[in-house]
Amino acid sequence: MPSENGQAAKRKRVCGARVRTGCLTCKIRRIKCDETHPYCKRCTQTGRKCDGYAKPEEKSFPKTSIVLPKLATDLTCMFGHTKEAHYMEFYFHQVGPKLAGHFDSEFWLRLVLQLGCSQPSIRHATMAIGYLYEKETSRKTSDVISQDQSDFFLLQYNKAINGLVENMTQSTRHVEILVACILFICLECLRRSCDPFFAHCKSGLSIISGLRQNTVRALPSAMTLETPPCASLMKPTLKPLRNVVPIFARLTLMGCLFGQEMFDLYPDQRLPDIPTTFNSMQQARLMLIDIMVVALKFIRRCASKKYSGQFTMDDSDMQRLLCQRVDEWYASFKKSQAKYREQFEQGVESLLMFYLCTTIWISCSTETSETAYDQHLSKFQRLVSLANTFYENSTTSSKASDESLAVFSFEMDVIAPLYFTAFRCRDHVTRHQAIKTLEMFHPRREGLWDTKNALAVAKRIVSLEEANLQHVDKLCAQWPDGTNRIHNALFGLGTENSVDITFVSFPNGLKSRGCVWKEVVSTQTGSLGIPIQTEG
Question: Where is the Zn(2)-C6 fungal-type domain (predicted)?
Answer without folding.
Answer: 22-50
